[in-house]
Amino acid sequence: MITTTGLTKVYRSRGRDVTALDGVDLHVREGEVFGVVGRSGAGKSSLIRCVNLLERPTSGTVVVDGRDLTALAGRGPRAGAELRRARSRIGMVFQHFNLLSSRTVQGNVELPLEILGLPGRERARKARELLGLVGLADHARSWPAQLSGGQKQRVGIARALAGDPGVLLSDEATSALDPETTRSVLALLRDLNRQLGLTVLLITHEMDVVKTVCDSAALMRDGKVAESGTVSGLLATPGSELARELFPLGGATPAGEAETGKETVRERTVVDVTFHGESTGRPLISQLSRAQGVDVSILGAAMDTIGGRQVGRMRIELPGRREDNAVPIGFLRERGLTVEFPEAAGAARAPETPETPETVEKTR
Amino acid sequence: MTWPEMQPILLQGTVDTLYMVGWSTLVTVLGGLPLGVLLVLTDRGGLLANRAVNKAVGTVVNVGRSLPFIILVVALIPFTRVVVGTSIGPTAAVVPLSIGAIPFFARLVETAVREVDHGLVEAVLSMGGGTGTVVLKALLPQALPSLVAGLTTTVITLVGYSAMAGAVGAEGLGSKAITYGYQRFETGFMLATVVVLLALVTAVQLLGDGAVRLLSRRERAT
């Protein structure tokens, strides 16, 4: 539904080139909710604005619903009639809602219909229908200033749906909302996705958003897509950074760090285990302990439902070096679990975490 | 001078002043509003970003703003004659009054429009709106309270300018004050014109403030 190929955006600021997007290839399938996550400055915002060409990509193409929008753009900075028509079929919601305070709620929803040239009575009917869809039928005559943040975003969503779009772009739509309102707005997006078959591309910095609504996700870093795939696929990928961030394992820092300069630390191996699919239901850790005769310490564990599937993650500690533990690790891998060694990531992070005696205490 | 003597003169002066200020306000809005919007649109990062046009319009506005009004009135006499056919009288005064106030109002429009959140522009563009839609549906309606406040200031400035124009042949309260109050030493009359002008300015300000309050009520909750 949305395909970007080699999308690059370079801004010139004070004579210096800043690369916001560096060859982004993204594929969003029809009817899915696709989340792009990343820190601020990673290029998420430029990416979503390039999809409806609010920002002109420096190079690369954007195809939405089979139409190459970059070809419609023309050379000048202004949007031609064809691009404007294509934009009216792509809804967009914003972090700060961007409602006109000079119009009532209904007036705001009617605005895109005015742009489409619908007659007045038709506009009013459609606007009321959309407000009903987002649960704000009673607020048609209110002013945006009278609404709560969640209600404002619902108006924003109703407005974005006015042109019967096939695609909805969501630019940090829940970032200005409290957790409870975030949940209800996400649930609304999920419903619209299912009811209307709407394809949703959302950008966010909140992993919870991905966890709650997304079918697929991509992680952006320095203008590039570092990882992407379906959420369940990512969780089953060893070493996936997105999976680790979606499902962090609490405060237990990898024990590998504690070894330096501490003679009292005994040798041990810390392992992160991910259970997915049917393995979530089986008592594998106690089987491991019995079959291999190893003492397993559990450092942290969590269960969650991601993309409608049960997933469990556990950080365990095995006695002995990593080399000594090949058999128990093999045992777990054979049974369909994803096994990772957090030391590797821990070592890379080491300079950021000063190794004070307290952190060592906490580790144990 | 007795009150019955003053009354018709004051009345005539007030009518002329209102005539001059009224027409020049209309011309000022017609000229200053597009100019102010153009200043915002052609600025860097604007929808019609164009350095040359922005610089040119900005320079014209700055020159207009820095000329003392009394000089402008005199300098424009030949131009006024071409447009109105005469350089004397309230109709002739409308020309320099408008030309003096257009740059002033344009700057106020620019400030008001610039304050509109860029997110709203983005929203209208994302719906498929063009530049005209952005201006008419988002920028101007959103800036309306500030625009009305700016217009109030402009009208009051025009009342002041019209008194100055009175010194060089326009009619109105300013010219009456000079002829009767200053040249004939009628302190009583001078005071009376001051009172009328004060009432006029106060009425405009109250009216403007009321309109702004009414317009910005929707922007506050409840």
Automatic annotation (TrEMBL), chain A:
Q: Which organism is it from?
A: Streptomyces pini
Q: Name one GO molecular function term.
A: ATP hydrolysis activity
The record's listing under Pfam families reads: ABC_tran (PF00005), NIL (PF09383)
Q: Which InterPro entries match?
A: AAA+_ATPase, ABC_transporter-like_ATP-bd, ABC_transporter-like_CS, ACT-like_dom_sf, MetN_ABC, MetN_ABC_transporter-like, NIL_domain, P-loop_NTPase
Which segment of the chain is annotated as a signal peptide? Answer: none
Keywords from the named record: Amino-acid transport, ATP-binding, Cell membrane, Membrane, Nucleotide-binding, Translocase, Transport
Q: Does the keyword Repressor apply?
A: no
UniProt-annotated stretches for the region Disordered = 342-364
Q: Where is the composition biased (Low complexity)?
A: 342-357
Q: Keyword Metal-binding on this protein?
A: no
Sorted alphabetically, the Gene Ontology BP terms of this entry are:
amino acid transport
Please identify the protein, giving its name as recorded.
Answer: D-methionine transport system ATP-binding protein
* All residue ranges annotated as the ABC transporter domain in the record: 2-247
UniProtKB/TrEMBL annotation, chain B:
For this UniProt record, the keywords arranged alphabetically read as follows: Cell membrane, Membrane, Transmembrane, Transmembrane helix, Transport
A cellular-component GO term for this protein:
plasma membrane
- Localization of this protein: Cell membrane
Q: By its UniProt entry, which InterPro entries does this protein fall under?
A: AA_ABC_Transporter_Permease, MetI-like, MetI-like_sf
For biological process, the GO terms are: D-methionine transmembrane transport
Has UniProt tagged this entry with the keyword Lipoprotein? no
Instruction: Report membrane topology.
Output: Multi-pass membrane protein
Q: Where is the ABC transmembrane type-1 domain?
A: 14-208
Which SUPFAM superfamilies does the protein's record reference?
A: MetI-like
The family classification in the record reads: Belongs to the binding-protein-dependent transport system permease family. CysTW subfamily.
Its protein name is: D-methionine transport system permease protein
Q: Which organism is it from?
A: Streptomyces pini
Q: What is the lineage of its organism?
A: Bacteria, Bacillati, Actinomycetota, Actinomycetes, Kitasatosporales
